[in-house]
TrEMBL record:
SMART domains: Lactamase_B. Keywords: Hydrolase, Metal-binding, Zinc. Its cofactor is Zn(2+). Pfam families: Lactamase_B (PF00753). It comes from the Bacteria. This is Glyoxylase-like metal-dependent hydrolase (Beta-lactamase superfamily II). Residues 12-192 form the Metallo-beta-lactamase domain.
Amino acid sequence: MKYAQIPLGPLQTNCYVLTKENGTCLIIDPGGDGEKLIQAIKENQLKPIALILTHAHFDHIGAVDEVREEFAIPVYIHEKEAAWLLDPILNGSQSFQMGQMIRVKPADKIIVNEEQMQIGEFKFQVFETPGHSPGSLSFYFKEEGMVVAGDALFNGSIGRTDLRGGNHEQLLKSIHEKLLTLPEETVVLPGHGPETTIGHEMDGNPFLNGF
C-alpha cells in the first residue's frame, strides 16, 4: 500500500490518500481545497471507495461533501462527533472565524466502538484516542506498519486540549495506552506536520515525559 500526504485547507491539515496496487484508495481527513484533491486523485487514476475521519474539527472536514459527492463514496465518523459535522459551533468553524461556516451533511457510516475494519481491500484497527476531541480516532494498519493518528500525536508534540471536549489527561492516556504500545518502528501519520515513528516519540517527545 502506498500513501500520499496532501496538506489542505486554511491550516494545511494533512489529508492522506492510501492506495492499493489496483488503484482503489481511502481518503482520510480532507480538510479543504476539494478541487485540488479531486484533481490529484483523477490525475493518478485512483478509485476512491470511502472517506474516513479521525475527528470532526473544521480543518479536517472542509472538503468532505465536495469529495463525497464527486466520487459517490460513504463517509465514516465516530458517533460522538457525528453531530459536529452539521454544527459550526461544535466543529469550531464559527469560533475560528476563517471566513466560512463549515456544515457537512450527515455521515453515512457511524463508528461506535474500537474494532477491526475492512473497507474493500483495506484492513485496519480502529482505536479510540480521545483527548484532543471526544470522538478522536486513530487508524492502525498493522501489515503496513503505520498509524494515522489525527491530532492526537505529532512529531515532537501532542494535540491541543483547550477546544470543546478536550482533556489533557485523557489525551496522554490515549497516547500511552493506544499508540505507544505499538511497535517502535510504526510510522505515525499526524494531522499536521511531518511524519514520525512511535520510537522517536517515545525517546524524544517532551510532552510525554513523566506521564
